[in-house]
Amino acid sequence: xxxxxxxxxxxxxxxxxxxxxxxxxxxxxxxxxxxxxxxxxxxxxxxxxxxxxxxxxxxxxxxxxxxxxxxxxxxxxxxxxxxxxxxxxxxxxxxxxxxxxxxxxxxxxxxxxxxxxxxxxxxxxxxxxxxxxxxxxxxxxxxxxxxxxxxxxxxxxxxxxxxxxxxxxxxxxxxxxxxxxxxxxxxxxxxxxxxxxxxxxxxxxxxxxxxxxxxxxxxxxxxxxxxxxxxxxxxxxxxxxxxxxxxxxxxxxxxxxxxxxxxxxxxxxxxxxxxxxxxxxxxxxxxxxxxxxxxxxxxxxxxxxxxxxxxxxxxxxxxxxxxxxxxxxxxxxxxxxxxxxxxxxxxxxxxxxxxxxxxxxxxxxxxxxxxxxxx
Length: 375
What we know:
9-stranded mixed sheet
């Protein structure tokens, strides 16, 4: 038995920061195999698919301008079925391997998750009476069996999956620290709200960046909130975790100076997304900021079509909405001013203030930072 790290593709792999999950060597090899497949898919397969697409477009009398227009060309490419199969089945293989690793220690993990935290510096507030929205419970987002809300063990599976999905390059959640450090404007923030915090990876960096602020983090899932609380306590990060609905938080108006949401709005139906943005504005004090990290179309027809396909293959039924609409305009429509939408380079550059997408030849998610102010 050994404690799993994120695999051979990491140059500086560290043990998981949570309640470490001992993993048999056989299971670890399966996870390394999944990592290898994912790396092959995102580099070699994508580059070959790009070459086929470019050749097909060069021979076509009509050049596609959007992902939808590129669809018929991409679907006719010899390599496209293989690329699509890899994407969905790598994800399914990942969840099977990670679930196996956690199930082997289910009793210990669940007992530890529900044990009282001694002398907490933060807090945890669960709402057993909270009615989880139908759009949330009826979808197994990311193809994770049972989602993150239906069982305590799923929180651990999800945490391990968050490591693997970045090809082993996010051991200390550098992605979220980069967002906090580079995408959040300087300010005297007294109260910060992080919507959809999951197991706390997006909330904890705010404690370091703004040590004088009160950091509140909400999510729908009780299991991930319990894990988030334990993680934050273990790492000495005082965060108030609460089980709330993003589109109707029940916090008083004008309670926060900064409201953030990381990878949240693409998992909401469009009407709910609009209500969430309106709720963010309601919660802000005058002059307060909303900063969102999510996805957006890039203007590259191939990438945009593949992202629409990713939404189908990864059980993301609402992702297509934000890939088709102008989310910056939606922010303006609910009353935000000084709205900006900036491509975000997760490799270290962060927001690209010139609005251009980074030049890359690998497959990657089209991250954007969406910012607005309450006038």
